[in-house]
Specification:
- The structure holds 3 protein chains of 3 kinds.
- By secondary structure, chain A is α/β, with parallel strands linked by helices.
- Chain A contains 21 helices and 21 strands.
- In chain A, the strands form 6 sheets. Chain A has a 6-stranded mixed β-barrel. Chain A has a 5-stranded parallel sheet with strand order 3-2-1-5-6, with helices on both faces.
- In chain B, 20% of the residues lie in helices and 19% in strands.
- Chain B has helices at 31-37, 89-105, 112-121, 158-163, 202-206, 215-222, 274-278, and strands at 13-18, 21-26, 61-64, 71-72, 83-85, 139-141, 146-149, 174-176, 183-185, 212-214, 232-237, 246-252, 255-260.
- A 5-stranded mixed sheet of chain B has the order 2-1-5-3-4, sandwiched between helices.
- In chain B, helix 2 crosses helix 3.
- The radius of gyration of chain B is 21 Å and the shape is globular.
- The N and C termini of chain B lie far apart (62 Å).
- Residues 1-8 of chain B have low confidence and may be disordered.
- Chain C contains 24 helices and 14 strands.
- In chain C, helix 10 (211-221) packs across helix 17.
- The chains are: A alpha/beta, B alpha+beta, C alpha/beta.
- Chains in contact: A-B, A-C, B-C.
- Chains A and B meet through helix 1, helix 3, helix 5, helix 17 and strand 13 of A and strand 11, strand 12 and helix 7 of B.
């Protein structure tokens, strides 16, 4: 957001905010300890809205749950923006001082009247109005989201639509307010920090920024490609076109986790060379030509991880890697050696200091300080800098810290790419269970008493119409394929919406169903919205 | 426009006397904080640094000038010029009796801290004879993650608080019944897997007597192979979602034997979820066996 | 509002109906459309106080708190089922172990001292022989008419058979009566009758005087609380008036449960408007707008009469948004307890009323700033409140003319046990124990012991008949007036049995929260049961002393502080454990 690749706020802030808008996030399941901070906020008197097609366990804590149509997030955000403007609740001083492009934004949302937004979202107009007014008039307010916003074909638009609301009201750049994407994986933020993005160098410096790139070129004595690389979805497209012939996969299991999985597997199988470096013999590893057994980063090696509040913290080895497994950096160093570059003996602290040299936002985070403080939040540009609890304070500075005002980004509402048809009349969305994680390779290691496996949750009326009862087996089909699933009746779902987790690919290949429509701006696939058909499997009725 | 940074409240100091020693602590501190600041070690059972004091166990009582009864140091806030005695005969008597009462009805065999304090104060649970009523509860083993041994339960409420308002807000357990028949239980004393329990293990983490115990520890103890002296603790970051919870990996013989979290870290305050607490087996290549 | 988990058990239609009747529109989550659900924490917390009434409805419908019924209540109020169960299992009147297996009423028969020595066992035996369902109950507050019975009705109102009997006050017609002067004289169901006897004159006067003058008068009168702790009422009310906050509460502590006590029951049953009026005076004086009468569940007659009194006062504009045209708002509600002695402790009472287990809270903070719902609260018992009326009408000086310098005014005494005319008596502070017993027709037989102040009080012997019953004299003598209990035992009474029962009472009634009381009460019981009629060895005496001291020093509340005091006195006086018995 506004040029920084991380959430704006500290966890502590949600304990002290006045209004919580949890949008497309089931943090109670997916980020349980963050949710503790949110609960403190509620206990301290914050009002909470949950915006989600499902009344999730998180939504059950909300004062108001808004069950919008799947994929109508931009419409709702634009409708809220329009209502804030129409009701005269815009933070005029903030908009004038700190933003640009308000007039275009205003024009772009003009058509999203309460009535029109209500049509697009399925929500009562007065509920939309209430949220708009509460958000605009709260002293402090946070909007938080997870994959319900970003696993859509228009993911970036979704995020921008929410950013516009923060600009409209000034709910950014001050303690207690902010825009908070909750990171789904323990170091996905750290991956971004380190430049594991197609268009970024470490520290979120742009690849096409000559000065930034120049630092790296000077340091390593090589020319770097100024063109952004490919993100995951584009890589698969490039494989399909035969432009990518080899892949080196580290700690990722795309053969289970990609949307439209059958297609993805075929592409992986078709590569000339597939190298997989992982701690598990994943399905992807099974397809590989070379498997490099790695160590468990968080328990068997030393380094850092960056959290959703941009806090860089130390990870430490507690046990040695088993058998022939080796540390990731050992493998990489050896690989470099085989390619003719001797980097010496890997030392995590030295590597970290190398990063600090090149990434200004990490400059002040010495290994020693990380040890002493229990973690520092970037940006932390110097050794005497305390780290940054929240971002974008410059928006409230008289000279904007020498920056340009933050731009509004008008966006247009579009529903899910895959429309419902007579053949595929039900909506399918996906999410996480509390006790399981992604494709289950890690969380499958323990016997959870609350694990129920992947099932297709559906509204009682849909089940009744299809002649299905709780526990029945059914054939679930999307335009891409079919899987057998167990049916679970969930009366908290809206009619027409179905839901499944995706943690047990060995049992249920749920991503056979998911849509491969993806966002041109971020490369994220639309896991959150597919169209499906459900047919009872007669034999299962016994 | 001003940059609305969070600025900590200006701290006001309060001075009190503890055992004749002047101690100054920030306003809002408890007498226990003041004792700690004065370097005085105080026995506690129901107190937890990450929990709201319930002051139920009464082992931390101190004598406060002007107060008819002793006061619980864990919850009583300091007021200017308080005069506190932590080592008077009355204080020693009450602490001894609380420990003695507990010892007479509860299995404290794995409550090392309490046993050390009992010795310190000369508590003698045998004074109540062999027929004294005890908790008399069987061990509940209902799943592979943790066990409940209410024979060891001192009813300190810490698990209830951790499951409830103080952290998890799941409320799977409550104090039930009354008097000596009071027990920690789910509704109608049902088994845990049928309850609201989400297996975060935050109750286990705060239990002072091992009444709640990770199954890994329980099994090793059963096999007479629980060796705290051979264990080490490494702090690292959880491998699951992106919240960045600090994990303390307790290892013995190069294997993780249990996982806790530092109770003074701003991310977790000692709390974890089921994945962070129990989701480590894969490190050792263990599968769930089915 | 929370992601609660429910078992599969479902409520019967009768349970749903009974609970919904109590809750009305007060539900924690509402589904406005398929896509709009409202709930939330503040709403859930605001409804929690309806848990106890809802549990009462379940108990009445099904004879127990069934898993399905509990689920329904929990869902409506969004109270976690484990917590709701924790609350239900706290109370004597709620059954949680299993379905009763019948549709009958249950007869609660008191087994505490006054009834125990006067036919409780025989009554239980005869009721059981008739096939009645009997529950052995702690004191039912009917000690003047032993053995006491309370009928817990199934799908019908609770009742007390003795309430059918004609009532006469032993001191009826005595012109010196102050607090009891209307008892048996006014029609307790009629506001008009109350007004004809001077009712609401005190409120009128209080409004004329203004709050500051009322507080001055109360302080000048020296009125102190009659529940046992004797805290000065004027100071308490002034603290509430001075406390910050817009929502303040007046609570009448009508959870009269101290064994031997029945005075407040008389006041509520026979002079209910006086309680309503005095609470209203408390409200306009302190600025409180909410009033609660927390009455023990075993007082159905008093409950009905108070509800009637409130309704009539409301209709007459003496309660509600504008009390007697004064501009003060005061809303008054009756809440029933469910059988728990500890709920007479003020902070436990708050917890109970709020829908939590009746566990006391540590003080400070005190109720005057952090009381009911953590808001400023004046809590008094009915006897204390009723004293306000004569003080305002007659003035502090006239009030002080009664009683002694240290104990101004009059005091109610609950006479039971071996006296000729058991019942409720009013005497100026300073009358001696002997005079009070004589006023009740004298002792029957030789006085072996007198229990003063209730189970939480202490025994005295005939040697103390000259003791003036004032706060200061009893304190000096190492005993207490407590709640005005005077139970007389004669030499035929089995004092070992009485003492055993007192220890059993505290064992059962300890809330279980703090270690000194929870364990101490059990160990004391074991000790006295083991002792029986034997002499007590010095080692055991020392051990009991150790227990007395830790319970008094380190317990959270008054229950623990006093749970060993009666036995301590019995041992000291040789009533039990003496060398030659």
């Amino acid at each position: 957001m506004f040029g920084a690749g991380g959430g704006t706020s500290s966890y502590k802030e949600i304990e002290e905010t006045n209004l919580i808008v949890l949008w497309g996030s089931n943090a109670r399941n997916a980020h349980p300890i963050f949710f503790h901070h949110l609960l403190k906020g509620i206990d301290n008197g914050a009002k909470m809205y949950a915006v989600d097609p499902r009344r999730t366990s998180s939504a059950k804590f909300a004062d108001t749950w808004l069950g919008l149509n799947l994929g109508s997030d931009v419409a709702l955000a634009n409708g809220i923006g329009r209502e804030i403007i129409a009701a005269g609740l815009v933070n005029e001083a903030f908009v004038a001082h700190s933003s640009q492009g308000f007039d275009e934004y205003k024009e772009s949302v003009e058509k999203y009247t309460l009535e029109y937004t209500s049509q697009l979202t399925g929500l009562p107009p007065e509920a939309i109005q209430e949220l708009a007014h509460d958000y605009a008039t709260a002293e402090t307010a946070q909007i938080l989201w997870t994959l319900g916003i970003t696993e859509h074909h228009n993911a970036v638009d979704n995020v921008l639509a929410l950013c516009n609301l923060a600009l409209l009201t000034g709910h950014i750049g001050k303690w207690g307010s902010g825009l908070v994407p909750l990171r789904g994986q323990n170091n996905v933020q750290g991956g971004g920090d380190m430049g594991a993005l197609p268009n970024k160098l470490p520290g979120f410096q742009n690849v096409n920024d000559d000065a930034a790139r120049g630092k790296f070129e000077a340091k390593y004595g090589v020319q770097l490609n100024p063109e952004p690389g490919l993100h995951l979805t584009l890589m698969f497209e490039a494989m399909e076109r035969g432009e990518i012939k080899a892949a080196y996969v580290l700690g990722e299991n795309p053969a289970d986790s990609e949307a439209d999985i059958l297609h993805a597997r075929k592409l992986l199988e078709g590569l000339d060379l597939l190298v997989v470096q992982d701690i598990f013999m994943t399905r992807t590893a099974e397809l590989a030509d070379v498997v490099l057994p790695a160590s468990v980063a968080w328990a068997e090696s030393d380094g850092t991880a960056t959290s959703s509040e941009r806090r860089v913290q130390r990870i430490r080895a507690a046990v040695p890697p088993p058998g022939e497994a080796r540390h990731d950096i050992d493998i990489l160093f050896d690989l470099a050696k085989r390619m003719g570059h001797d980097w010496g003996t890997p030392d995590p602290e030295q590597l970290w200091d190398e990063l600090r040299d090149l990434s200004p936002m990490h400059q002040g985070m010495s290994w020693e300080r990380l040890e002493q403080t229990g973690g520092l939040q970037w940006p932390c540009p110097s050794l005497d800098h305390p780290g940054s609890p929240f971002l974008h304070g410059w928006l409230y500075e008289d000279d904007l810290g020498g920056r340009d005002p933050a731009p509004f980004s008008p966006v247009v509402a579009q529903g899910p790419k895959e429309e419902l048809t007579d053949e595929f009349p039900l909506r399918l969305t996906t999410g996480r269970a509390l006790d399981s994680y992604n494709t289950g390779v890690q969380s499958g290691g323990f016997n959870s008493p609350i694990r129920y496996g992947d099932a297709l949750d559906m509204h009682p009326a849909d089940a009744e119409r299809l002649g299905l009862a709780d526990g029945d087996q059914a054939l679930v089909s999307s335009p891409r394929g079919s899987v057998e699933m167990r049916i679970r009746i969930d009366s908290s779902l809206v009619e027409g919406l179905t839901f499944t987790t995706f943690h047990f690919p060995d049992l249920v290949d749920a991503n056979v169903l998911t849509s491969d429509a993806w966002d041109k701006k971020s490369g994220t696939a639309e896991f959150k919205a597919a169209s499906i058909r459900v047919e009872p499997l007669v034999a299962a009725r016994g | 426009m001003t940059n609305t940074m969070n600025s900590p409240e200006t701290e006001v100091a309060v001075s009190i006397s503890v055992d004749g020693q002047a101690v100054s602590v920030p306003e809002g501190s408890t007498i226990l904080d003041a004792c700690t600041a004065a370097g005085i070690d105080t026995p506690t059972i129901c107190y937890g640094p990450n929990l709201t004091p319930v002051n139920a166990c009464r082992v931390c009582v101190v004598e406060l000038e002007g107060s008819r009864t002793l006061v619980p140091s864990c919850s009583r806030e300091v007021e200017p010029d308080m005069v506190v005695q932590t080592d008077s005969d009355r204080v020693k008597h009450s602490r001894k009796m609380v420990l003695e009462f507990l010892g007479s009805g509860v299995d404290l065999s794995q409550a090392d801290d309490l046993n050390a304090w009992s010795e310190h104060y000369g508590a003698d649970p045998n004074r109540y004879g062999p027929d004294a009523e005890t908790m008399n509860e069987p061990v509940k083993i209902e799943d592979d993650l943790y066990i409940r041994d209410y024979d060891k339960c001192v009813l300190c409420y810490k698990c209830v608080s951790a499951c409830g308002d103080d952290a998890q807000h799941t409320f799977a357990i409550s104090m039930t019944g009354r008097g000596f028949g009071a027990r920690i239980a789910t509704e109608f004393d049902g088994v845990l897997p049928d309850s609201a329990c989400v297996y975060c293990g935050n109750c286990v983490a705060v239990c002072p007597t091992n009444a709640l115990q990770f199954k890994t520890e329980f099994d090793l103890r059963q096999a007479a192979n629980w060796r705290p002296e051979d264990q080490s603790v490494t702090t690292t970051i959880c491998s699951y979602c992106g919240v960045g919870c600090n994990l303390e990996l307790h290892t013995q013989d190069e294997r993780i034997v249990k996982v806790t979290s530092p109770d003074d870290h701003s991310v977790t305050w000692g709390n974890l979820c089921i994945k962070g607490r129990f989701g480590w087996q894969y490190v050792h290549g263990d599968s769930d066996g089915d | 509002m929370a992601d609660l988990h429910f078992t599969d058990a479902t409520a019967t239609s009768g349970e749903v109906e009974a609970v919904n009747l109590v809750l009305g529109d007060n539900v924690a989550v509402t589904t406005e459309t398929e896509r709009l659900v409202r709930g939330g924490t503040s709403r859930r917390k605001g409804l929690r106080h309806l848990l106890l009434p809802a549990l009462h409805a379940l108990q009445k419908e099904s004879g127990w708190i069934s898993p399905g019924g509990l689920n329904h209540v929990s869902e409506m109020l969004q109270v976690p089922p484990a917590e709701a169960y924790g609350v239900a299992s706290f109370y004597e009147m709620f059954r949680v172990d299993e379905a009763p297996g019948h549709d009958d009423d249950v007869a609660h028969v008191c087994v505490d001292p006054s009834c125990r020595i006067d036919g409780a066992d025989e009554l239980i035996a005869s009721l059981e022989a008739e096939g009645k369902h009997v529950h052995r109950s702690p004191c039912l507050g009917q000690c003047e008419r032993p053995p006491a019975v309370f009928i817990q009705g199934r799908r019908k109102a609770d009742s007390v058979p003795a309430d059918e009997e004609p009532f006469t006050l032993p001191q009826a017609g005595d012109p010196s009566l102050s607090l009891l002067k209307r008892i048996g004289v006014v029609d307790p169901m009629s506001l008009d009758s109350y007004r004809e006897h001077g009712g609401y004159d005190a409120l009128t006067k209080a409004l004329d005087m203004g709050a500051d003058a009322v507080l001055d008068e109360l302080v000048a009168s020296g009125l102190s609380g009659r529940g046992g702790a004797a805290f000065p009422t004027g100071f308490k009310w002034r603290s509430v008036r001075d406390a910050e906050g817009n929502d303040k509460h007046i609570v009448a502590n009508c959870d009269e449960s101290e064994p031997g006590t029945f005075k407040d029951r008389h006041l509520m049953e026979h002079d209910p408007f006086a309680l309503v009026e005095s609470m209203t005076i408390a409200a306009v004086t302190t600025g409180a707008t909410n009033g609660w009468i927390y009455i023990r569940g075993e007082y159905p007659l008093a409950t009905g009469r108070l509800e009637n009194a409130i309704a009539q006062a409301r209709d007459a504009g003496l309660l509600g948004d504008d009390v007697a045209g004064s501009g003060h708002a005061f809303h008054l509600e009756v809440r029933r307890g469910a059988g728990a002695y500890i709920c007479g402790e003020e902070t436990a009472l708050f917890a109970s009323l709020e829908g939590f287990r009746g566990e006391p809270r540590n003080k400070p903070p005190y109720p005057t700033t952090n009381g009911l719902f953590d808001q400023p609260t004046a809590i008094n018992n009915p006897e204390t409140l009723l004293n306000v009326l004569p003080i305002l009408l007659g003035g502090a000086d006239a009030y002080r003319a009664l009683g002694t310098e240290g104990s101004p005014g009059t005091r109610l005494f609950c006479l039971s046990g071996r006296v000729a005319n058991p019942g409720l008596y009013e005497h100026g502070f300073g009358a001696t124990l002997g005079e009070i017993i004589d006023a009740a027709g004298g002792a029957q037989g030789d006085i072996a012991a007198v229990l003063l102040g209730g189970a939480a009080g202490s025994f005295v012997t005939a040697d103390s008949l000259d003791l003036p019953l004032t706060l200061e004299a009893t304190r000096e003598a190492g005993t207490t007036l407590g709640s005005g209990v005077v139970v007389v035992f004669n030499s035929d009474d089995n004092m070992v049995d009485v003492c055993e029962r007192i220890t059993e009472f505290f064992k059962n009634e300890s809330c279980g929260q703090c270690v000194p009381c929870r364990v101490g009460a059990v160990r004391q019981h074991e000790m006295i049961v083991t002792l029986g009629t034997k002499p007590m060895a010095q080692e055991q005496r020392d051990l009991h002393e150790d227990m007395v001291q830790v319970m008094a020093d380190a317990s959270i509340c008054g229950l623990g502080h006093t749970a060993a005091s009666a036995i301590k006195s019995a041992l000291a006086l040789g009533i039990i454990g003496a060398d030659s018995q």
